[in-house]
Amino acid sequence: MALAPALVGLPSASASVVPRQVDYLRISITDRCNERCLYCLPENFSAWTPREELLSYDEILAVVRGAVGQGFRHFRVTGGEPLIREGAPEFIGQLIATPGVETVQLTTNGTRLPRLARELKRTGLERINVSLDALDPEVYRDLTRGSIEPVLEGIALCRELGFRSLKLNTVLMRGKNDDQIEPLIDFAARHDLVLRFIELMPVSLTEMLDASNFLPVGEVMQRLRRDDRLEPIEDGLPLGRGPAKYYRLAKRGVTLGFIGALTDLHFCDHCNKMRLTADGNIRPCLGNHIEFDLKPALRPTDSAGEIPSIAAILQQARVEKPLEHLFRNQYQPQRIMTAIGG
User: Fold this and answer.
1) What pLDDT shows up at residue 280?
2) What's the CATH number where 304 sits?
């Protein structure tokens, strides 16, 4: 995707870069999803990973134990849509109970929350991010091919159950959901939710990956400043461990996060994460094709040669983690987003 010429982005971080502490692993437990968001899945895509190629829960937990030994402390369960995989709540409970794991979060499209939120709460899960790109039912259906009703029901139930952190994620798409920005802000304010706006990234093989669809977060911020005041929240750590910059919209009293992967030129300076794909690869950077296969360590064969350990593979991936992504360099994705993990 070619970036639009005018870079109206977030305030840049300091030019001085401190060494990155990579201690956050995002775990995809499936590449399948029950929705087809425009920016994520091609309309007729069906090349799902064969089930035997997906890591089992026991294999994922083995990776987690290895990661803890390498200093990882924070974990997020993603997909595809993670809650469509059978046994997901039980796995999340096991992940939470793993020694050395400090925080566990879940990213979901919310469609399964009405039936699973209570079970998830019983596992000890306290932090959920829900993808919500529109409030208008027709716009939502156009964007996701799904129905918004169970998502809103799931959000309401999670609020009722008292999850410690419940955030909404909105991917910005010019001409697609830019008219949903104000309704989403009002919804977040009304229900005391954190809302995060995310720039469209070239992470999937779809027609959406075009500059005409790109809406910079900085442009949204300028729009909001016309009749309100954005007050920076200096200490964003309690709100999350990712790259979002958080602000308080003064008049409406709502907390907004902005993730500008393309327009924030210092976006990668403090990146603390790597990804575990559902088929067993460690991906140090979302915007780079480098991956490290963990399957030899997880499923050793009788073939000659030394078998690398999980710890050794994780350490190699950490050492070779790129200093910055390639999204601004005419990046062409080779795997769909659901295969990489959100």
Assistant:
1) 95
2) 3.20.20.70
Place of tokens 């425009």: 38
Distance, in Å, from the CA atom of 249 to the CA atom of 253, rounded to the nearest integer, reads: 5
Assess contact for 110 and 132: CB atoms under 8 A. yes
Please confirm whether the linkage preceding 69 is cis (ω < 30° from 0). Answer: no
Q: What is the DSSP letter of 175?
A: T
Instruction: Give phi and psi for 334, each to the nearest 5.
Output: -105, -15
Q: What does the mean pLDDT of the chain come to?
A: 86
Is residue 10 assigned to a domain? Answer: no
Q: Specify the higher pLDDT residue, 242 or 184.
A: 184
Task: Output the CA–CA distances (angstroms, integers) from residue 296 to 55, 57, 140, 260, 302, in the order listed.
Answer: 12, 17, 42, 36, 11
Nearest of 264, 255, 36 to residue 131 by alpha carbon? 36
Q: What is the average per-residue pLDDT within 137-156?
A: 96
Output phi, psi for 250, to 5 deg.
-60, -50
| Token pair listed for 327 | 């999204």
Whether residue 324 is contained in a domain is answered as yes
Q: Which amino acid is at 125?
A: L
Phi and psi dihedrals of 159, rounded to 5? Answer: -65, -40
> In this structure, is the dihedral angle defined by the CA atoms of residues 285, 287, 290 and 295, taken in order, positive or negative?
positive
Q: Other CB atoms closer than 10 Å to residue 297's CB: what's the count?
A: 21
Report the predicted TM-score, pTM, of the whole model to 2 decimal places: 0.89
Domain count across the chain: 1
Question: Following CA atoms 115, 121, 123, 129 in sequence, which dihedral angle do they give, to the nearest 10 degrees?
Answer: 90
For tokens 């809650």, what's the residue? 83
d(CA 326, CA 289): 9
Provide the 10 A C-beta neighbour count for residue 58: 10
In a domain, 13, yes or no: no
- Span 63-78, pLDDT tens digits: 999 999 999 999 999 9
Residues across the chain: 342
